Amino acid sequence: MKTVGDGTRALNFLIDTLIIFALAYFSFGGWNWYVMYWEYKPHNFGWFFFGIAFLYYVLFEGLFARTPGKWFTFSKVVNMNGGKASFFAILFRSLIRLTLIDLFFIPIIGKPLHDHFSKTTLIES
């Protein structure tokens, strides 16, 4: 069980964030069409971005233990023993990932907060 490095994590983040941004951008545009023509309540872009990010990570990591970014870098999420992470751990991991300070803990504890608190790790597959 070989854990991935910071460069792999950065590439995963970049790929997944671009996909999430594209999904949020088009969802936001669709919602604004309803706001303009059907007088729906307007929402900020952040609600779309963070909501889609949460669902994106829960669905992909919960079902496949990897996201498209992790498929690209041949890595996956596992529990500390190397087995499949529980759905509760993935849910908790995805929720913590939405905090702004998540990645700043890599130099301090050697991994991001979402890995530390959910007792998961990212390994090469």
Please explain how this structure is put together:
There is one protein chain. With 125 residues, the chain is mainly alpha-helical. It has one domain (6-124). 63% of the residues lie in helices and 8% in strands. The mean pLDDT is 95.
What is the number of beta strands? 2
Low-confidence stretches: none
Question: Span between N and C termini?
Answer: 9 Å
Q: Helix tally?
A: 6
Strand sequence of the main sheet, in spatial order? 1-2
Brief digest:
63% of the residues lie in helices and 8% in strands. With 125 residues, the protein is mostly helical.
How are the SSEs ordered, and which strands pair?
Elements: H1 6-38, H2 45-64, H3 68-72, E1 75-79, H4 87-97, H5 106-109, H6 113-118, E2 120-124
Antiparallel strand pairs: 1-2
Question: Descriptors for this entry?
Answer:
125 residues, mainly alpha, 6 helices, 2 strands, elongated
